[in-house]
Write a structure and sequence with these properties.
Elements (H helix, E strand, L loop, with lengths): L1 H49 L2 E2 L7 E2 L3 H6 L3 H32 L6 H14 L3 H10 L5 H7 L15 H11 L2 H12 L3 H9 L4 H29 L3 H6 L13 H11 L3 H26 L8
Antiparallel strand pairs: 1-2
């Protein structure tokens, strides 16, 4: 009888261990789930509800249906903000990725002190979205800034770049290009994964450096390019701090730096039109999701996976 009891205990052992592991996993995951519902899902649900209301933060929400969404099509400043944001994304992101890839190719040659170079070039990505760098950028491109000081050495009278409606957005694009560190590190890791034998075979066939780059490096690097493209497009659509600091929170001059996120902030926290701002936030989510979906659909035509 004791033998049967012992066998029963042995059979129940693994199940008991599994239950114990499940309880331990649930215990350690509980804070994450609490944060997920309180910090992410809860606010998203509240925002979705508020987008159908007239809510000023000072009074109770008043249900108005789709009125906030129809208002957006009649809001000229919102349409201008979309134009500015799309220009910023479509111009600065490709330039940023091109700069990151070019520098990664240089660093991939095996320079001395490579770790130091990687750290130095990665630093702008850490600081590019900070208030301090945005303030510095405003000084660099100001009427008496470093750029005009440099141009003055050649007798060129510079503009007040950040205060001119034709150039203010361009200065923010340059700032985004300057923060190429993160995609550069990813490109460099991708370059290190390309087998050297492909270059040796191409060299034997008479391919020069440029032909090796276009026929070997780029095709094998397309998954990394795609990854960086998706991330940087999403980040660019959410740009806020740089435009807010450089323009003093106005989106000026003449709304030339009025990014979509900045206009959303003005509506929600300056005008206290939180219902309309919530609807704008969901439109931004739809735009980013749509752009990401387009990138994924288009990737099958140009991304090469070396299976």
């Amino acid at each position: 009888m004791s033998v049967v009891t012992e066998l029963g205990k042995k059979k129940k052992g693994p199940s008991a261990y599994r239950k114990g592991d499940a309880k331990a996993a649930a215990f350690f995951l509980a804070p994450w789930f609490v944060g997920l519902f309180l910090i992410t899902i809860g606010p998203m649900a509240a925002s979705a509800y508020l987008s159908f209301t007239d809510y000023s933060l000072l009074e109770a929400p008043n249900w108005i249906g789709f009125e906030n969404y129809t208002r957006m099509f009649e809001d000229p400043r919102l349409l201008n903000a979309l134009k500015v944001t799309f220009l910023y994304v479509f111009i600065s992101v490709p330039l940023q990725l091109a700069a990151a890839l070019a520098l990664a190719l240089v660093l991939d040659r095996g320079l001395r002190g490579l770790a130091i170079y990687r750290s130095v070039y990665y630093l702008p990505s850490l600081l590019g979205g900070s208030v301090a760098i945005a303030l510095l950028w405003r000084q660099v491109f100001g009427a008496d800034g470093l750029v005009n000081g440099f141009l003055g050495l050649f007798g060129i009278q510079g503009e007040g770049w950040v205060s001119h409606p034709d150039y203010a957005l361009g200065t923010l694009m340059i700032l985004n290009v300057w923060t190429f560190g993160a995609p550069m590190i990813i490109f460099l890791a991708g370059l290190r994964q390309i087998p050297q034998m492909y270059y040796e075979a191409a060299s034997i066939d008479g391919a020069g450096k440029w032909r090796q780059f276009t026929s070997v490096t780029l095709p094998l690097l397309t998954p990394i390019i795609f990854f960086n493209l998706v991330l940087q497009v999403i980040n660019a659509f959410q740009t806020f701090t740089q435009a807010y600091v450089v323009s003093g929170g106005t989106g000026g001059p003449a709304d030339s730096t009025m990014f979509y996120t900045l206009y959303l902030y003005q509506k929600g926290f300056a005008s206290l039109d939180m219902g309309y701002a919530s609807a704008m936030a969901w439109l931004l989510l739809a735009i980013v999701a749509g752009m990401t979906a387009v990138n994924f659909l288009a990737s099958k035509y140009w991304v090469f996976y070396n299976d």
